[in-house]
Amino acid sequence: MQTTFPRLMLEHARQRPNAAALREKIYGIWQTTTWSALSQEVRFLACGMAEAGLRRGDHIVVVGENRPRLYAAMLAAQALGAIPVPLYQDAVATEFVYPINNADVCFAVVEDQEQVDKLLEIRPQCPQLARIWFDDPRGLRKYDEAGLASLDALIEAGKARHAREPKFFDAEVATGEPQDVAAMFFTSGTTGNPKGVVHSHFTLLDRANAGKSFDQLTESEEVLAYLPPAWIGQNIFSYAQWLACGYVVNCPESAATVMIDLKEVGPTYYFAPPRIFEGLLTSVMIRMEDAGAFKKWLFHTCMAVARRVGPARMDGKPVSFIDTLKWQLGNLFIFGPLRNTLGFSRVRVAYTAGEAIGPDLFTFYRSVGINLKQLYGSTETAVFVCLQPDHEVKADTVGVPIDGVEIKLADSGEILVKSPGLLKEYYKNPAATAEVLTPEGWYHTGDAGFIDASGHLKIIDRAKDVGRIKGGPNDGAMFAPKYVENKLKFFPHIKEAVAFGDGRDHVCAFINIDFEAVGNWAEKRNLPYAGYTDLAGKPEVYELIRECVEKVNADLAQDDKLAGSQISRFLVLHKELDADDGEMTRTRKVKRGFIADKYAVLIDALYGGKTEQFIETAVKFEDGRTGSVSATLKISDVKTFPAIKRAA
Fold it and tell me: Residue 580: is its pLDDT beyond 60?
């Protein structure tokens, strides 16, 4: 489709002026913005930005939760030919310095006082940041900073400009071309500084439309926008596809109300990374811990039927009359109420992406009647590379290449992609661009995988992370850390895991307990604790986690390729891995190399045969203060199992 985002917005406003475009929950009440009202707001915002000096090709940062006004601000900037750069709203102020200076940003639109404070804090390091506009005025009444103003004031300035030049906005929109740069997304920066991924209107809309066609999306869909707009996954689903399809995007009141808002909206099209699905399942399991004996029995009995029958039923395969009846009874008593509790009663298509999802976790959702599918893509590919067709869904693949995509494998096993949705470049970084884009137009994904016999792509791990066991009885066996970690995280008591083993004779792991789930478990057993560190070190908790690890080992023994990845020893970390401490990205991907360096003393203890190790670690609190947490960590040995040889 040869168009731009502002033209699509104007087209919806012409064809469906009174239809809902966006909803936002304010003080518990859903407020609707129609396409007509949105187009008016965008018109005035664009005129105001032009009056303030925003020009074609300029960058403007946008920071905050999903808010209609912030979406309107991005459209307004794009109408002028400027380039929105969404940044993570939960990042600390210093994380804004590099992208703002790298992109020569002079303008910013932010949600509230928290984001204003961050930008004012770094202004000395970013002296070019001249204008900051905010949406929510609470707490900002007495601020007197140069260039700081509300979006309301910007709209008023825009109305005056529009009165003087009523044809200005439409002329600017008409000047835009599909190949113009539409947005820039900074990568999570797992190694070094983040890179600015440059996308055009064409690349983003081409992939948005490819996904629209694949799943027959219409203007009738309802979407809940609750993930960071700076993550391209959220941006594609609630911005690019929103404008491509014309469906309704719902913005929750706050992070704390997402679960309530999810149930109220009842989305038909849903997207989340695996950690969200892990968290939802953990909340279910915690509630089952508190249930009575009969409810527990009913739940586990119905889930046994669901695991056996549910996936086949979702895939349209024949199921016996007796099994169909059993599943329907389970649906009446357990699955239906469960879907309703989770807010998934109306979901027609749900996707997970961002990182691999554990097969057990994936199968759980499909078993209870939720059409959860996997997709494969990245910031550089505008997300959509492979999608799973209905009735062809597998737990261990990410689907088939969709319209316009070609895939080939390098000799190393790395996946190469050619697609209309590929990035234009990494901003101001020709060397990095040349590393990932070949002269023939192939993109190096950095992922290792293969195409199976049915044409589905299977991802093993990041190519750089896949290793080999060296020495011992499993010498030469493949080691895929992310695969192992995802199996561990299926258990509701395990929130995060980091596995080590490349170049070693066995595998060891760090475990983060899920504080809520394990805390609930401890309280039911009258086990007192004084906080995360105290709870994580309890012998009873170690025994609980050891049982989980041994179940993972028993499962890994079933796979002759990955049997060598069984975990021999583990420890439970004394603190939660945290993006503020540099241990994870803002999308909650572990920084494996950073963690290995930071906790080298613990890795040495695991492989050195020690039974405990003292460690003290610096931490950063939410209010910006720093401190330290220390503990003597126990190290536990785990039972491993012989690999099960499958008959040819």
Answer: yes
Q: Three-class SS of residue 238?
A: helix
Burial pattern 618-639, b for ≥16 Cβ within 10 A else e, equals eeeeeeeeeeeeebebbbbebe
For 400-424, how does the pLDDT look when each residue is reduced to its tens digit (9 = 90+)? Answer: 999 999 999 988 779 999 999 999 9
Q: What number is the average pLDDT over the span 299-325?
A: 92
- Residue 98 backbone zone (phi > 0: left; psi -120 to 50: alpha; other: beta): alpha
Domains in the chain: ranges and CATH: 5-247 (3.40.50.12780), 274-462 (3.40.50.12780), 467-637 (3.30.300.30)
* C-alpha separations of 488 from 55, 73, 495 in Å: 50, 42, 9
pLDDT, tens digit, 9 for 90 and up, residues 227-252: 999 999 999 999 999 999 999 999 99
pLDDT at position 85 over 90? yes
Query: Which of 429-443, 501-515, 615-629 is predicted least confidently?
Result: 615-629
Sign of CA dihedral 398, 399, 404, 406: positive
- Predicted model pTM: 0.83
- DSSP 3-state assignment of 23? strand
Which residue matches tokens 């009874």?
329
User: What distances in angstroms separate CA 596 from CA 5, 90, 468, 498, 607, one per listed residue?
Assistant: 43, 25, 17, 9, 13
Phi-psi region of 380 (alpha: psi -120 to 50; beta: other; left: phi over 0): alpha
Taken in order 263, 111, 208, 397, the sign of the CA dihedral is: negative
H or E segment and range at residue 444? strand 443-451
The SS3 call for residue 102 is helix
C-alpha distances (whole Å) from 643 to each of 138, 189, 471, 543, 570 are 61, 37, 17, 24, 20
Whether the Cβ atoms of residue 644 and residue 557 lie closer than 8 Å to each other: yes
Q: Which two tokens stand for residue 518?
A: 């394990």
Least confident of 8-22, 191-205, 347-361: 347-361
The C-alpha atoms of residue 451 and residue 466 are separated, in whole angstroms, by 17
